[in-house]
Request: fold
Amino acid sequence: MENNLNIFDFDPNAKTRHYKKGEIIQRKGEVNGYTFYVKQGLLRSYIIDSKAKEHIFMFAPEGWVIADVESLEFHSPTELFIDCLEDAEVMIFNHDCLFQPESSRETIIQSAKRLYRRMGVLQRRVIMQMSSPAVDRYNYFVQTYAELAHRIPQHMIASYLGITPQALSTIRGKKIKK
Amino acid sequence: MENNLNIFDFDPNAKTRHYKKGEIIQRKGEVNGYTFYVKQGLLRSYIIDSKAKEHIFMFAPEGWVIADVESLEFHSPTELFIDCLEDAEVMIFNHDCLFQPESSRETIIQSAKRLYRRMGVLQRRVIMQMSSPAVDRYNYFVQTYAELAHRIPQHMIASYLGITPQALSTIRGKKIKK
Reply:
């Protein structure tokens, strides 16, 4: 992911904030139009289901962008919580500014390219959720987020994969033996 | 979804093809860089897993765009099959042309907006796959694809939802009784 911060210059009100590990920067139910770019640290987005169980949607390390895209698009209240797994430095900008006359063609191209890339990864995730055993999904996670595996607690990786921590432990145990 | 075909004028080689119901227009393993715009008819994309079972990724009626975005982005062979559930008229264009100097700012904006919208729907789908009971996922399907429900065979809706046809039958039976 490129670190060219000029790509966010379409929002004159973009601001940078510092957060502590554990701090929640977006809650369910907000209508904020915010997109978050991680300059430093590690964020995650997740939902809490009707049984009060957490399900992690994605992780966002340095250079990644994270947002509740459904909320941005449909101007509906956010479903996703976003919080910090590490102390973080985050640039916050307003999604709607991207399509204003002031934003350059190059800016829009960079955003579109980033979006297509994210979409490709999401497509893979949906397909694997539907059709792949947990061990394959774990291997894809490690391959995609190689540097993150040691920065994320095991129970959160399990949540992201939709399996129990015990099942993850078994998978990792078998990998080590090989 | 808008029907403004000018948004595909960035590809001077874009072509329109007619297909019959049941015709496969893309197979797994191709490196074609194609994106398909449905002018008329109904397409679907799906994978076939290691146990020869079909899993439907999405449906694309008139005005929708369908492609293997992971393949486009990473220039890898397609995972997704795409075929026609009805006789169809399809415009085929090359994804890479979108970011060439010839394509207008407005064209890129329209593509980006369409992509954000699709991304929002995909986000919802991942979240529901992780956390919602089948009945809720079925209701969301009906709400999202209202006009499609009667055009798609029940076993395909079941496949899309990741449940058995029998389970879908039970859900629909309970809905009718209410």
